[in-house]
Amino acid sequence: MDVHVAQARRTTATVLKQWSLPDAPAEDARLVVSELVSNAIIHGSGDVRLRLRHDDHELQIRVTDDSTAPARRRRASAAGLGGRGLHLVACLSLRWGVADGGRTTYAVIPTLTEAPPCCRMTQSSTDPTC
User: Residues 41, 5: contact at Cβ < 8 Å?
Assistant: First the structure.
């Protein structure tokens, strides 16, 4: 599994560098790619496919496998090693979800100044509201 995830991260890093994406959203994107590809390998079936699309304001990450069971958040136990990936994806993304009958999990990363919903600042505080 690690080889495929590492390959997906390297490919993502190369593409985002070619697109001149700023460092902060590029790092968020690499983490999201790692989580989505890991989930597809562990919980999905068949070949795992990664697609990236960028416009002026956002980067869309789509990971597809052959399973029709949609990705879902799990409750992570304090001692457990898993169950936190989609929580990270949700925090780093403007939005995320499933498509294609459960075969594709996608996330949208802001590439300009808009922060993901859980990391926006409140007006009365300098702390993010996660």
Answer: yes
DSSP the chain: -HHHHHHHHHHHHHHHHHTT--HHHHHHHHHHHHHHHHHHHHH--S--EEEEEE-SSEEEEEEE-S--S-----PPPSS-SSS-HHHHHHHHSSEEEEEGGGTEEEEEEE-SSPPPGGGPBPTT-SSB--
Give the residue extent of every domain in the chain.
2-114
* Residue among 86, 91, 67, 66 nearest 76 (CA): 86
| pTM of the complete model | 0.79
Q: 2-114 falls under which CATH superfamily? A: Histidine kinase-like ATPase, C-terminal domain (3.30.565.10)
Task: For 19, list phi and psi in degrees, rounded to 5.
Answer: -85, 0
Total residue length of the chain: 130
Could you report the per-residue pLDDT of 71-124, keeping only the tens digit for each? 876 665 555 555 578 889 999 999 999 999 889 999 999 987 545 555 544 344
